[in-house]
Design a protein that fits this description.
48% helix, alpha/beta, 5 strands, single chain
């Protein structure tokens, strides 16, 4: 895509049910980048904890965020789907990987809950959505990134993201 750096690191972020994996995968495909779902980097203990309905605490998250940051650092030209809910988590990723563009997917709690309830193959229960929404710290004005509403279908969202990224770099 014209205007988008070939070596960019992009994190598609947000709470459960916002479409990080779908949008991130489509975005990576359109850009010709590698795609990684940060959920795949969670230690088994984290997955077990979340599947049981217990939110992770920061002590659970730091090693996982270090693994995500390491993955970002090793592979310029990458899109990673990662919740990155707090500024401190995003700072941790930047400490490991340098400059990152964040794409924050946002939607109404009702829409997000419906999406979570409709999927059977994921470990995150709907009961943890409220905890994630309480934890979420939207991007600060000095963080490199954009916020996108998840109401439209994923291909339209990806085109919006590409337009925004292109105008930010063009």
């Amino acid at each position: 895509m014209a205007g988008t750096p070939a070596q960019e690191r992009i994190v598609v972020m947000g709470v459960a049910g916002c479409g990080k994996t779908v949008v991130g995968g489509l975005l990576a495909s359109k850009l010709g980048y590698r795609f990684v779902d940060a959920d795949d980097l969670h230690p088994a203990a984290n997955v077990t904890k979340m599947a049981g309905g217990t939110p992770l605490d920061d002590d659970d998250r730091w090693p996982w965020l270090d693994a995500v940051g390491g993955t970002l650092a090793q592979c310029p030209g990458i899109v990673v789907a990662c919740s990155a809910l707090k500024r401190a988590y995003r700072d941790r990723l930047r400490t490991r990987a340098g400059d990152i563009t964040f794409v924050h997917l946002v939607g109404s709690p009702e829409l997000l809950a419906r999406r979570i309830a409709s999927r059977s193959e994921h470990f995150m229960p709907t009961s943890l959505l409220e905890s994630q929404l309480r934890t979420l710290e939207p991007l600060d004005a000095n963080e490199h990134g954009t916020e996108v509403d998840v109401t439209p279908p994923p291909p339209i969202l990806v085109n919006e993201v590409l337009e925004t990224l292109g105008s930010a770099h063009g």
